[in-house]
Amino acid sequence: MLHCLENIASFMEALPMDSPSNLWITICNQFQTFLIKLPSVLPLKCPLDSSLRIIICLLKISTSSATRSLLEPFSKLLSFVIQYGVFSLSYLVELCGLCYRAFNKERDKFYMSRIVVLELLQALKFKAPLPDINLLLLVQFVCADAGTRLAESTILQKHMIASLPGCTTAAMECMRQYISELLDFIADMHTLTKLKSHMKACCQPLHEDTFGGNLKVGLAQVAAMEISKGNHRDNKAVIRYLPWLYHPPSTMQQGPKEFIECVSHIRQLSWLLLGSLTHCALHQGSTSCMPIPLDAGSHIADHLIVILIGFPEQSKTSVLHMCSLFHAFMFAQLWTIYCEQAAATPTLLNQNQNEFSSSAILTGLEFWSRVTPSILQLMAHNKVMVEMVCLHVISLMEALQECNSTIFVKLIPMWLPMIQSNLKHLSAGLQLRLQAIQNRVNHQCLQGMQGMQGYAMPGVLPTALRKWLQCTQFKMAQVEIQSSEAASQFYPM
User: Fold this and answer.
1) How far is Cα 74 from Cα 32, in angstroms, rounded to an integer?
2) Euclidean distance between CA atoms 173 and 171, whole angstroms
3) How many CA atoms lie within 13 A of 345 on its CB side?
4) Model confidence pLDDT, tens digit, residues 84-94
5) How far is CA 210 from the centre of its chain?
6) What does pTM read for this prediction?
7) Mind listing the pLDDT tens digit for each residue in 238-283?
8) Pick from 145, 38, 131: which is nearest to 82 by CA?
9) First CA to last CA across the chain, in angstroms?
10) Full 3-state SS string of 54-68
11) From the CB of residue 420, how many other CB atoms can be counted at a distance below 10 Å?
12) Based on C-alpha coordinates, what's the Rg of the chain?
């Protein structure tokens, strides 16, 4: 059958499919019979590009009335290919693009793209067995229509997502109503554990440690692009999808419920920022993916303050609570780099770029001015807290230094004394890492730069940013998996 499909595809590609002929109706009727029965005889886990090529040829027929009756058989065959076959993304994009162009009615135009989006959603709800590569290809399918692309990885290699046809598939039109579900998937701490179990059941789990992080960042890119496009000047989209963003928890009520909600919100924001920064790293100079307005920084800082203040008491409750400090500092890293990127990226909304750049840097500094007192308060508890917080602060400094951060340059005079005053409580390893940070700062100053202010310019080097994002994505995914596997059932997200 595979040889037969290959021969049919090659033969049809040589035909003038767009030539008008009364024979097309008869041929389409025959194909309808053939395609309905085809999935039941196809082998599993085999290359099925030839079946997509046949559909592409049929969609090129000039009389759309002849092919409209084939949409349902097309969709069933396409679902089979996505669930059980190996396929090229370029053929899938071309197929859906042709369907969008061939028909006039919206229902018919979106038919094939809607099938692809529904297959993706079914997989995210663990209702359909989808191989890891196919699942990421579907995310890339939506990303391509949204104006972004996934980062290359061991699962999704460059040749799989290169040279895609530049046609409209309307994938984002079909996905738009499900953005809230994507955000729920990203926010749910247990989805990565479920993915690992699901992969072991349906395919070889060769990439189980990296797949979940890649998937969440890809979905975050889709959500971030949609929110960015819908924000405009009044931030409508972000308020619709994240209604809690401008309503931080009350200082009067900071119990276990408020604490766990803040951790959940911060984790969700971290994945969104990862998606945004991944787009920035892959599309240098792009302004199209900034989903979180900078003016939300002070409200987000309030969420972090709740976590920092409540950590000593709440961290004893469960593994999830114990990891809350990691999530807080990881978000702080991401938000600082996000402000850095905003400062370096040309904006269409502000005529004066220097003014916007200064505003973005000041936003990062204001964020830290609000958060730092709570960090000092946390360090005042005991020696264990001192070493734990210093570990996170040193990791933060290493990350910002690696990314050539301007905000880091402005904050290091405040951070260094804070850590050096507690040097006796630090392990030898942490002291060596701190010394390496100081040596690098001193080395940069000795290279002829005029003091600390000349040490960095706004904007992260693309190579350094990609490397750092990859490491951050992996760390966040691993901590979520460990938290989920050990979490109490009384704390579902």
Assistant:
1) 9
2) 5
3) 24
4) 999 999 999 99
5) 13
6) 0.90
7) 999 999 998 877 766 677 888 889 999 999 999 999 999 999 999 8
8) 131
9) 47
10) HHHHHHCCCCHHHHH
11) 13
12) 26
